Amino acid sequence: MLRRVVLFTFGLLLTVAPVFAQQGTAGLRGEVVDQQGAVLPGVSLVVTHQGSGLFRETTSGADGSFLMSAMTPGVYEVAAELQGFKKFLQREVRLEVGRTAQVHVELEVGGLTEAVTVSAEAPLVDTTSKEIGGVVSAQEFVDTPLFNRNFAGFLGMLPGVVANISLTTFGADSISVAGQNVRNVNYTMDGSNNNDTFNGGNGGAQARVPIEAVQEFQLLTGQFDAEYGLASGGVVNSVSKQGTNQFRGSAFSFFQDDKFTARDYFAVRDDLALPPTKQQQFGGTLGGPIIRNKAHFFTSVERVILDGGVTMIIPSRPEFNRTDFETTRVWNTFVRGDHQITQNNTWGLRWLREISPQPVQLNNTNWTPSRVEAETDVDWTVVGNLSSVIGATKVNTFRISAVKEDVLFGNPNFNATRDQRSLLPLLNHPSFSDQQSARASRRLDVAYGVDNVFAWFIPNKRGDHDVKVGVNYLYSSLRNEDFGNMNGTFSFNSDLDFDRGNPRTYPERFSIRVPNASNFLVKGHFIGMFAQNKWKLNNRLTLSVGARYDVEILPTANGNNPLFTGRDHSYPRDADNVSPRVGFSYALDGDGKSVLRGGTGLFFQRTSYTFINGFFSNGRFSDSFTVTFPTNNADTGPRNGNLPSDPFLVNGPVINRALLDAMFPPRTLQRNAGAVRFDNPDREVAWARQYSLGYERQLGRAMSVSVDLIRSEQRAQYMLKELNPGVRDSTSTLQNATIRRTNPLVGEVGEFASNVTVPINVGWIDYTSMQVAVDKRISGGNRVRMSYAWSRGRGNTDSGQGDAIQSQFLDDLR
Question: Which residue of 338, 491, 589, 638 could cross-link 509, Cys pair, CB 3.0 to 4.6 Å?
């Protein structure tokens, strides 16, 4: 099955005209008429990028109309010629990512040696699109201050978007769109995949796109066309700057140290020292011609040095109170090249790499100095594209891409020795944690993509048709190595240091990973096919009709999964994911300054590897799992003034390695004595249904106002059902009360000592919103925005990414 699907996909990629999805591009539509308003067919049009000189040619159709799709966003010059008429020239036509600009070409009778040059403001309203969202320009990036140079903060200026910004570290910022989980966002750079294979959109884009290298961002928050897949919440299209015929560069530098900061309230109260904080951001860009009007380059380099202050307050142990700082050291490098080979063929290459080590991380304010963590992260992405124009009405582009992340988390001592087992255990007290971190892991994920689309403009067939058909293929792999908690974790009921003579200072619980580190490889295939027709029936009404088919091939480890007994396949297959999407846009006036738009559609979510991780690392039999002693309760001895009775606790916070290795011999496959996670053979891909109705109006020359009503219904969301439920002996002190596993639903009675969970598609989230946006352009390239969203959400799951069913009692989910 897998081989047939993959071979079929590659067959399509080779036989369909080589074109990539139009994500990250713009369009230009117009009509050519004479002074009396009669249409003029056969008019030659040349559209030239004013900066680089790269150009596109076409001819007006029988009804005088023309459409150029897959255009690089930027500022263009439009020229039109026809024998017997003066040459037409209009400059400063701005094409924004994801939008179709309108140009009215009116030719005057005369000779070609004469020319008529017109100037007109680019319309603010796209009257041909049902999509909801907005564009953030490069000027706004430069003018708007931001803490850590991550573009996610800028996207929060659009309605219905909540930006999650890290205030203490150079964190992986993310956005939530239309009330959905942050993972339900698809990130692209210049039209190609830039997603985190493991986390989805939870950490934003895989490689951070530097804001100095960005021309503009488009964020689609609803009703995006069928060409967009792998997300139900939003689509982020980032478009990089390109080189021009002039050598141009820029430089920036921001500096701040502890002389510009003050101690916070708690540091002043406890008379703690001011930490030696600093923040340095510097870099620059350079672009220019390799061959004028044919080949250009653009590059940027960015450096971020950040030492962020943190105040640590532990009321029960004031001797641990202190000010400290986290450290971040980042290099971000971007290179882009574009070359127009012939009149109809252009190719380009983009390369983005970021190294972002954080030698000291303080994720909580109750860690002692020895408890700190560290992270080393290297991300890169590369995109190659070949774009071709066939005749006057067809555009083909072929793109390949690769995205990679290599990240190391956890204990700084582990990063140096790679031997977590030899390190001191973590000590978790009620108010603070001490000694050495239990976190230690490495994640290597790689994704390769190939994308094709055929775009065809068909005029004067009961209206004009902008048709696109395409195939997208993505292969991704994840190598996950987890050494976490091989040094063990002891939990205490007291904040006192361990005293062998005081029973109350002994630990009451112990957990540790046995017998080995976790090391597994996950491979997946994501295949999408779509057909889209934007049908402009007349000058006012445009219908958008499309459908998309997506399939995920994600083999999971189910060799010892009892739920697959008798099944004819080894992992879930959900092969009927067809998502129709329809909508309309209606221009309410002849000038195209106001539009009524709406639509409905189905959107399937991509399953992130975070979700399926547990099927590999927490199976029925494993060579790496976490055990807890006692298993289903805390040892009540210490809190009652008695020594603990559990053999792993009687010596205090010292690991009995001999006993542990006897129970779980290293390098052996064992029955999992900890939490078990099974995959569900009936699991389906989660999805969302959307409805929208909106109105947008241009006021004057430079202001637009929009109001959109949006309804999102997420269904088949993942929630975890407990297959080995238990009941506590009492409710007086839940931490102490023993859990009795009274009703095991899988395996033999007593086979599973702890939780056994399986994902089921019972989660749902409903979201209703009214979103208002005001956008005003001001002279000098400045811009004013106002966004407002009123929303109401309800459901039975927080995220839909595998939340526990809190209402389950035994086998009753309610």
Answer: 491
Whether the Cβ atoms of residue 508 and residue 427 lie closer than 8 Å to each other:
no
Assigned token pair, 67:
């459409």
One-letter amino acid of 2: L
CA distance 375 to 740: 40
Give the 3-state secondary structure of residue 189: strand
Whole-number Å distance between alpha carbons of 394 and 88: 24
CB 386: neighbour CB atoms within 10 A? Answer: 17
Nearest to 455 by CA among 393, 412, 535, 510: 393
Residues 6+ apart with CB under 8 A from 687: 232, 577, 579, 602, 603, 604, 605, 714, 715, 716
Query: Which of these, 300, 191, 303, lies nearest to 242 by C-alpha position?
Result: 300
How many angstroms separate the CA atoms of 627 and 488, rounded?
A: 10
Question: What is the Cα–Cα distance from 431 to 409, expressed in whole angstroms?
Answer: 24
d(CA 392, CA 344): 10
Sorted by sequence, the CB contacts under 8 Å of residue 259 that are 6+ apart come out as none
Q: Which of 313, 309, 303 is nearest to 280 (CA)?
A: 303
Residue 166 vs residues 163, 175, 278: alpha-carbon distances, Å:
10, 12, 17
Nearest to 39 by CA among 111, 83, 105: 105
Cα 65 to chain centroid distance, Å, stands at 38
Q: What is the pLDDT of residue 662?
A: 94
Query: In the structure encoding, which two tokens stand for residue 292, read together?
Result: 């004028």
Torsion of CA 145, 148, 151, 154, to 10 degrees: -30
Q: Which residue has the tokens 């201050």?
A: 145
Edge-first strand listing for the sheet containing 74-81: 55-59, 44-49, 74-81, 87-95, 115-118
- pLDDT tens digits for range 346-365: 999 999 999 999 998 888 88
Residue spans of the chain under pLDDT 70:
1-23, 119-122, 147, 167-171, 566-569, 731-736, 742-750, 780-781
Give pLDDT, residue 11: 47
Task: Please report the pLDDT score of residue 22 as a whole number.
Answer: 45
- The answer to whether 673 and 787 are in contact (CB under 8 A) is no
Percent of the residues in the chain that have a pLDDT greater than 70, as a whole number: 93
Q: Which residues contact 163 (CB under 8 A, 6 or more apart)?
A: 152, 153, 155, 156, 173, 174, 175
Instruction: State how far the Cα of 460 lies from the Cα of 458, in Å rounded to an integer.
Output: 7
Mapped to the 3 state alphabet, what secondary structure does 746-771 carry? Answer: CCCCCCCCCCEEEEEEEEEEEEEEEE
Q: From start to end of 610-742, where are the E strands?
A: 621-622, 624-629, 670-671, 676-677, 687-699, 703-722, 727-728, 739-740
Query: Looking up tokens 């004057």, which residue turns up?
Result: 700
* pLDDT for residue 771: 95
CB 73 within 8 A of CB 312: no
Is-above-0.70 flag for pTM?
yes
Q: What is the pLDDT of residue 750?
A: 63
